[in-house]
Amino acid sequence: MHAQLTTLHVVSMILAYFADTSVPVTRLLDASGIRPEDLGGNDSRITPHQELQVCANGLAVREDLGLELGQRMHISAYGILGYAALSSATFGDAWQLLLEYPALLGTYFKLDLRIEGKLAWVSASDYQQRPELEVFNTEMCLASLNTICTDLLGQPLPLSATQFQYPQPAYSSLYAKSFDCPLHFNAQSNAFAFPASWLSRRLPLADAITHQEMLMRCRKLNSEFSARQLWLARIRQLLSEQLASSPGLEQLAQQMHCSPRTLRRHLRALGTHYQELLDDLRFERAKALLCQEGWPVGRVAEELGFSESASFRHAFQRWSGVAPSHFRL
């Protein structure tokens, strides 16, 4: 299950990375719907659109941001799941645990570990988010997984090879800091390889009692988080099917078989609210339609339930920072 909600961890990391530069926080948070005061909430949850918007803002300033963030995403960033992995008996056990709970990892990819001969390959596939951020997210994903390996083992994992599906970027010389091995671009998959024998290595922080306690917490947290994900997915589906004539909060509550008060409470617990979800879905649909021929701005506005084109133009400017006509260029 891909994450439909995530924490503010990546956003906070981006702000921390640019903290000593001249880049203002407002620029990094622009069009994300995240306020500086939101960053102090430990239980706050945001949508992928919000996180990716901040990523896009940061990427516009630093093209190798994905690699930089990946090097900073240590195992402790993954909370209970990270500590459960650290206390696993072997490196292979830790990897099995990480792959078992993708919702807790908050990844945008399907992760897999396979054995081919004497090599173990860790791959990231099935990316379904903003296409223009695929390279960024691939870099951050694989670099962070390699960082996690170092944290688990207490020493760098000897990589045999790393490969990427996209063409070699202009800043490819910076990859060596994250991947000390032969690099291959325009490959069939995004993956890195290491000697499979390392999977049997005992971890330096292995502790059976701590591991069992962390594992129980992981199972409980995953159950709660997955239930929230499914509940949110149902709301998004209902709204997506009714964008041309969106239901109000009360009507949506009826469709969810709950009271408006209960709906508000659940959305608040998920770190969002009705209008934010509606805007998020409208924005995604608007971008898709604007990229198609035969969809003038007026027709897009009507498809999304706006009574006037001017209202849609104003909303799109607020969401993206540019007018619909400029987005098409």
Automatic annotation (TrEMBL):
<keyword id="KW-0238">DNA-binding</keyword>
<feature type="domain" description="HTH araC/xylS-type">
    <location>
        <begin position="233"/>
        <end position="329"/>
    </location>
</feature>
<dbReference type="GO" id="GO:0005829">
    <property type="term" value="C:cytosol"/>
</dbReference>
<dbReference type="Pfam" id="PF12625">
    <property type="entry name" value="Arabinose_bd"/>
</dbReference>
<dbReference type="Pfam" id="PF12833">
    <property type="entry name" value="HTH_18"/>
</dbReference>
<dbReference type="GO" id="GO:0000976">
    <property type="term" value="F:transcription cis-regulatory region binding"/>
</dbReference>
<dbReference type="GO" id="GO:0003700">
    <property type="term" value="F:DNA-binding transcription factor activity"/>
</dbReference>
<keyword id="KW-0804">Transcription</keyword>
<dbReference type="InterPro" id="IPR018060">
    <property type="entry name" value="HTH_AraC"/>
</dbReference>
<protein>
    <submittedName>
        <fullName>Transcriptional regulator, AraC family</fullName>
    </submittedName>
</protein>
<keyword id="KW-0805">Transcription regulation</keyword>
<dbReference type="InterPro" id="IPR032687">
    <property type="entry name" value="AraC-type_N"/>
</dbReference>
<dbReference type="InterPro" id="IPR009057">
    <property type="entry name" value="Homeodomain-like_sf"/>
</dbReference>
